[in-house]
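step 3/5: co-fold with heme C
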Amino acid sequence: MVMYMSKMVHLTAKRIIYFMFLLVFSVGCNDYEGDALDFDFVIPRDEVFAESIKEYQLFTEPLDELTPQTDVYLYELNSELFTDYAGKQRLIRLPEGAKASIQEDRIIYPNGTLLAKTFYFDADLSDSSQGRKIVETRLLIKREGQWNVATYQWNEEQSDAHLILEGAEVPISFIDHSQNQRQTKHQIPSEVACVTCHQYGEQSVYIGPTLKNLDRNVERTGTTVNQLEYMADQDLLPADLSSSTPMVNYKDDSLSLTQRARSYLDINCAHCHNPQAWSRPAQKDLNLHYEVPFVNTGISDNLKALKRNIQSGEMPFIGTTLKHSEGIELLLSYLNSL
Ligand code: HEC
Ligand code: HEC
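step 4/5: write tokens
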């Protein structure tokens, strides 16, 4: 509380009202989040989010096929966040006529850019023809330099999705890759939870579509192309881009253990474990970004704690309910090899 009060001195009236609202939500709704997120961050409020996902015209009818509209582009990542075996579709739309720019190694998307990530669970992870349940579509919309966050929960009929700010749990069951029936309650994060992960240096940020994570081959209209080149051709990105440190796909076991493990740590942990992140994990002296030289990651000083946290499933702290056995195995093999 003391922390909240000292911050308020600097806030505008509009934000103070919102801050009160946030306090109520952050202690009220999701038990695990209320307890866990000692929160000290102002959520951007420059976008007034619509009630229904339909307003954003992301998909053609019928919505549940998740077919993007013509001005909305699919993008794919080298390295993906694990969320209880959910499938994810990632989309981007830039405002008409606008293009992203590059500053140092970072892609700066223009104001008005929309990023969308839709979560679904296949009934059988090995056979997508068995149907799926779409649970939520998360949005990031950039206004006045800040990424505004919101998520939309899909209805049972899968015909629409509605704005939900306080989080929810959705019962899920599916057959995993080893033919076991699995059950969980998918956690739809509250907006407070969104920005615990989506913050960097006191700004709200996007995480996935960086140069290092977009620099890969993809299939587009029947041919294999480099994704950065494809996005440049569609006028989303400047031409002639490449990443100095393209990440690898950690699922590809033909690649080196080090690269795979570092890529896993980057996308599953580094948004909290870097010096500019949410203050609580930022104090842990870890910097798990892929491009950080090993000596500066803090991995060797924290070997024991890393192994313990990974093995117990205590990390990634929020967002998942199931242990990622393949990820745990990868990280432990790597840490044991050091
Ligand atoms: C546990 C950390 C975590 C939480 C909580 C979280 N995200 Fe993310 N989010 C990520 C990571 C990591 C990525 C990029 C990797 C990926 O997409 O697999 C991402 C990707 C996204 C994307 C695609 C664009 C991008 O930044 O990569 C959107 C949109 C998004 N999140 C919105 C939200 C919203 C809205 C919430 C809250 C309802 C939320 N996220 C909660 C970690 C989180
Ligand atoms: C949503 C933010 C978040 C994510 C994502 C996250 N952590 Fe953490 N991590 C924390 C917080 C918060 C703490 C401090 C916990 C505490 O104080 O009780 C922590 C602590 C740790 C510690 C130190 C524990 C100790 O005993 O000092 C390790 C090691 C760690 N995390 C590893 C990881 C790994 C590996 C991942 C990815 C698989 C990960 N974390 C993902 C938030 C996060």
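step 5/5: annotate
Residues 114 and 141 are 5 Å apart (CA to CA).
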